[in-house]
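Need tokens for this chain, all 993 residues.
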Amino acid sequence: MARVCAHCGNQVDVERFCPTCGAEQLVASPEGDPLIGRMVAERYQVLELINAGGMGKIYRGVQRVLERPVAIKCILPSLVDDEGAVMRFLEEARVASRLNHPNIVSVYDFGRTGAADGGYSFLVMEYLGGPDLADILQSEPLLPLDQIVDITEQTLGALAEAHEHGIAHRDIKPGNLMLEPRRRGGYHVKLIDFGIARLRDRRRLTQIGVIIGTPQYMPPEKLRGEEPGAAADLFAVSVMLYQMLTGRLPFPGPAAMDVARQQLEPGALLDPREVAPDRNIPDNLAHACIRGLAQDPSLRFPDALTMAMAIAAPGNRALLRASRIPGRPAPSESEVRRAVTQATRRDRTTQQADAGEDDGAWLRRAPWAAELLSPERPILVWGPAGVGRSWMLTRALRELRQRGIVAERLEAPPAPLNQIGYGGLRKMLRRLARLVTDADVRAAVDGADTDDLRRALQRIFAKHGAIRQDPLTARSGATLALRWAIEQALRRQPAQLFWLALDDVDRMDGATLAAIAELTRGPKVPGLSLVLTAESDLEALLPPAVLRHQLCGWPRDQALERLGAQRGLLQRGDNDIEPMYVEQLMASFEDDSWSAPTTMNEAIEQRLRVLPPNALCTLQALAVCGPSPIQTLSEVVERAEDVSSSLLPLAKLGLIDVEDSQVRFTHELTARATLRLAPAGALAAVHEQAARIAERRGVGVELQAYHALRGRPDSAAFLLVEESVRLRLQRDDAASAISALEDGIEAARTLLLRDQDQIAKSGWLVFGSKLGELLRQVGRVRDAVRVLSETLDLTEPHSSARARLLGQLARIADSERRIVERELLAAEALRIATEVGETQLVEDLRHWGSAPPPPQERVIVESGPPEETQNVLVVEDDRELARALGRWLKRKGHVVTKCHSLAEAAELQGPYACGIFDVMLPDGSGLELAERLHDAGVVDALVFFTSSEEADVAVIAESLGEMVRKSRGLLELEAVVDAALRGSERAPTPEVA
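Here are the structure tokens for all 993 residues:
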């Protein structure tokens, strides 16, 4: 596991401070934990140890891509060789990642690292900062009765979800219930550690005679060695209920045999009302507790929901907040659609205006706001999500229409619909040119003024992959079609004036975004006022001629004014407060979230965490599929009634609305938060269903690939990715093709972590090779080298895949004039290709190697002396590397002496202008030899390097002291030697992997 900086993410060595950002590092002492400060699965930074249990250790960490806190559970190193422990751990991961309930901790990822990274099995979960029930009971043994009922109901709701999936927890105890305090009192429960949970119908994983669990909470059947089921969990909940009611355990024996003996003793179980008479325990609670502790499992409650209803106060039999009650008839789709539409009839942007700002407020938000009404040039309004970009466009649109100016606002297709190439462009063409039906499209194609326009429209509206196209003309054709559509819109206007706003252009598919960028570069369309919005300034994409204005948030005073009596919720002191954050604060207050969040994402996530499971499932389906009819959402979830029963409550909360019979999020940030919080297994199940529906309905290959990779990443999914890449490159959309290949590699990486080696490696090799080449073509050479090098590590030592990757790396080295590296890589590629009988590859490599090199651009210092022939010593045991260095030096006109051991070099007399020393030779270190030869005047300048992966370059550099500086690797070896030969400085020590 590579050690990286916890702040900037760049790789660090053993220094205390990061060489890039200067931040102090979390470095474990030799007696400490080796994982702290390292990366797990190249995604998660380990920050500190939280706890250690019988199965493993739990760390606080951070997921670098999302910068979100996570809990990382790793199996104890002492148990890594215990296959049974590893199997139990991975079973926990697979089971827990499928559970999808607000009272069950979400599992984001799991797997096993490679042998080179320690072979750790790991589980990544949402980070919970609150205490557990055991901590609470230690400080407050007797909780209020209403809190006891609430905690028990939430626990039973979580178990109902698990039991419905055939999963028993098997270790319910106070230590496995994490509690998050609510602002208005009470706790939100999270059930953790399904470490010994398993599917009831799976084969037995536990060795005979091994009892897993905590004896005081075990039912009699488990202590007898019988197979426990869901009834065992209800017994454990009853033990906790008894403990919370009375302040003591019903069977307090210290060991399993003591507990079993007490359970069998007649009269050992005392009525909780007798144990704690001053508590005034209600009869229904006492009866439920005693029934749940019955010796015979069949005499206990039949399921968790029945027990939850039994402990509820008499007359309070309403639907439990965190549980589904079966048997309620679901309303019809038409009834749901009608009710949701009525609940969301007011435009959501009007709601925002009513909630926060008056009609003229948008003009006061920024000094440049008035420019939006009649821009001289295209304008880009940019700022983070939630700051009010879309709101400002809507208010400008309203004012323009009041002035009689024709104005149109078009939004980017929400994710994942923006995966479909030309999807955004098709939407714009249909709206602007009034292409309502397919017949309108055909008429537009037939009536096109030019052949170029006709071909462009045919390509844009063709079935996916139906028409092949030249990438060189794809972008110009898309821009031509967009200009044509705008001109069509202008012709319909009497004044020949048209104000067009394109909202969230950075969320458009790559081909559409490129067409928009080309439109802003070309000649201005007469009569068009163009306004764009995005989260960033798109500096690399849009030309400088586009005016850029950043939209900031509210000043703190305005935010406090908006909050009114709830101003105490605002914990931030800055003057850039997003309006949406303020609205979410107020909504979280109404929803009784458990704390005042300090960021907008936290505010949204808190609201989502308290939703019932049916609402969460609906939002997850919507986030995965994008805007969809109710029927589609019902098809991808496990229970169709979850959708119909939750849409109206979600609409009333302002999280969704219905537009053109499509259910959609009211804000993209809610969709993103839903995906962040969802368990990995639950999301994968929805993606798998969505992929099947996409295939059945014949939607775009790109959307099928998107869902297949995230649902069931197999060889068929990888083929879809390759087809997506082909289509995107045909559109001259290299950025989206790169994104698809990166998604493919990420899916392969996940499979590899979960021991599905064969599919993972084959996919990674294909995607890595293609991605490296594509990155090279677009000029991202360092990224190309990184991807190809990572892919190279997966190959067998003697394989055609390795030879091809080495050939790709050799071409990159050649393009950057790294001649020594090029020759080494090419020679190795040719050797392997010859050994494995890849005749075509051998021919290609030989042809490439014999071709004259491209002209080199050199920086010539005219005042400096010409390079002279000098004697150079090379001490390197790898004869192939020594020969390559020798060939390069001889081409430069130098005389080369090669030695392959310390013994050979010790007899040399010199003099040599430069010595190139391998610091790790079979018979000792080249450092001592070099210093001795230098002191004796045999060698003048010294160059050190190492090609061993075992070398500690930092230690080597430290031992060389002031003689050297560090450099970045073999890439600089030629420049280092040249500098040494010129006598300009002592040569640095390249770090060679």
